[in-house]
């Protein structure tokens, strides 16, 4: 039990020593974190083109299920929400996007424009949102509004007994949607802190040199001799050790 207690105490002392080492190098760790954060921000700023997001909201009217009733049932809502998938396929079709490109006056291929669109149901309701991501905020708004203008007239010609109404038109975005500069900067800071601490700890663990008498005491080794600090002794115009008022040495 004593040996286990001794081993445990020794481990605790080692961890405490490592903690004090990290604490003594805190300024280096913080500097590395700041440096990595700035590098991450600069890399994202220079290498990734910012994109803006504009959205329009549309309403799906499932008229075919309401011909003989004035009430809206759960099945009606389910049928309307399922129509969102159908409308999504129509909106991303080549003919529909071709008309959007003409009306929005943009220089994009149909395949490129399709990759910039995201269509999703709003909380499983009869409403759905069309989101456009583009490097030009004005172009993103034009594309979204062109979709909002074309959908109510073109979709009913394809899906019988259905209609689409515009809830919200898109406005020109002012904030960058991607990339998230704050996120990448925080990741850089965390990497800088982690890497700097790892390097400091590895250097300390791998360093087996004896620097002081306390290092010998940790290994239970006797002190055979001590080399005096000649630089310190020179300041006092003496070499070696001092005993009382007499200097041993020169």
TrEMBL record:
GO terms for molecular function: protein tyrosine kinase activity. The keyword Chaperone does not apply. InterPro entries: Bact_polysacc_biosynth/exp, LPS_length_determ_N. The chain crosses the membrane at residues 26-48, 184-202. Keywords: Cell membrane, Membrane, Transmembrane, Transmembrane helix. It is a multi-pass membrane protein. Residues 12-103 form the Polysaccharide chain length determinant N-terminal domain. Belongs to the CpsC/CapA family. GO terms for cellular component: plasma membrane. It is found in: Cell membrane. This is Polysaccharide chain length determinant N-terminal domain-containing protein.
